[in-house]
Amino acid sequence: MSGQFRKALIRKGAALLALTIGIGAICPMTTPSHAEELAKNLFGATKLPAATEPRSYGFYSKGCFSGGVAIAADGPTWQAMRLSRNRRWGHPTMIRLLEKFSRDAVKDGWPGLLIGDISQPRGGPMLTGHASHQIGLDADVWFTPMPKERMSASRRETLSAVSMIKGSGLTVDERRWSESRMRLLKRAASYPEVERILVHPGIKKKLCDTVTGDRSWLRKVRPFWGHDAHFHVRIGCQPGSSGCKGQSLPPAGDGCDQSLAWWFTEEPWRPNKNPDAPKARDVMKISALPKACLAVLNAPSPESEAVVTLGGRGDTQTAAAVPSEPAVEAVPPLAANAYSATPQSAIPVPRPRAKVGGADR
Ligand SMILES: [Zn+2]
Fold first, then answer.
1. 62-88, pLDDT tens digit by residue?
2. Number of domains in the chain
3. Given 56, 155, 165, 268, which residue has the most CB atoms within 10 angstroms?
4. How remote is the CA of residue 42 from the centroid of ligand 1, in Å?
5. Distance between Cα 20 and ligand 1 center (Å)
6. 3-class secondary structure for 137-168?
7. Distance, CA 303 to ligand 1 centroid (Å)?
8. Can you give the residue range of the structural domain that contains 308?
């Protein structure tokens, strides 16, 4: 460890301590009787993260996290979208990775990232949208390039992400798809922390048909419903999160095989036989989440959003103390990186669904 990095870590520790001591608002108490409440209502109402150590609990689609930080609404190489949703929160590793990704993307010739949903301040199920994004380790990035101008908050609510898929078909719209988007995905897949990137099957097919040279990164790019106008970056469980349940790595190979061919059959697109059945997210009670999630709801908040916002303009106290570049690169290969075994857990099996779009957007 370099002396400089050690110093940076000490500064980071001091800042975290200051953050913990300087606790402002305390969240309304959530008692064990809340255990039967719908998790989405409680987690959907949180405004600020739990001001404790960064830890993810549970699985991507059933969990929560503490110690979250926000990506700044504006950075030199990104703009965050849909600010009203308050979903700019993630595990610090995720936020630093997005910032690095945005800088690398610009070096690759992409104009900058439009950042979609990450997580709610304390994760958990959402009132609308995503099934996953619950433990601070998932983020959506638009295929739409960042415009030159800084968009107003209202523009960020209304601008639509443009689909890369032609009509209601399953193939890429050649007028919109570009090699620069392929490079963007390749860059995202290059980070050891990234375990999966979800894209529409038509986009995966396009990559299978066109990527030459090194194709090993295609293993991380997996087909999924939705994800035609944005892609979804998923990182592995981070060190210090023993309660985080990882996902098995994708099968070996580039994934341009039977598993992809299935998406071009009729089965995945069959109308849902029971369209009125509630989604897991809509019925999940607090008691169904890891026990720690009740404590995460009850944990104190930081004194303001600014002290837990990293990067961007007006770097905050916390951001100044957290080494943004080295932190991502200095993380040693630990148990949960993309190339080592992750704990056993259920792999979400694709289910036939009524239409493109829906839960994971
Ligand atoms: Zn997503």
1. 999 999 999 999 999 999 999 999 999
2. 1
3. 56
4. 21
5. 31
6. CEEEEECCCCCCCCCCHHHHHHCCCCCCECCC
7. 29
8. 3-330
